[in-house]
Design brief:
With about 70 residues, this protein is mainly alpha-helical. The chain has a single domain, classed as lambda repressor-like DNA-binding domains (434 Repressor (Amino-terminal Domain), Orthogonal Bundle). The protein contains five helices and no strands. Helix 2 (about 15-25) crosses helix 3. The chain is globular, with a radius of gyration of 11 Å.
């Protein structure tokens, strides 16, 4: 399955390290999240949605509308 968090990162011209630093995890853990080797926790999902100023449903492919409501 395609990773929405990878798409968001690439669309914003960010490295994995930059996003990992912003949400308080290691680059390796972030890489695992992008490749779905590890599942997103609720806490990280919220941090990513806040970081990208989007909604959780967009990250989870429940909607194609990226704007926060």
């Amino acid at each position: 399955m395609k990773s929405r968090i990878r798409d968001l990162r690439e669309d914003n011209d960010l490295t994995q390290q930059q996003v990992a630093d912003a949400i308080g995890i290691t680059q390796r853990k972030y890489s695992y999240l992008e490749t779905e080797t590890q599942p997103l926790t609720d806490e990280l999902l919220i941090k990513l949605a806040d970081f990208y100023n989007t909604n959780i449903d967009y990250i989870l492919f429940r909607t194609d509308i990226s704007a926060k409501i």
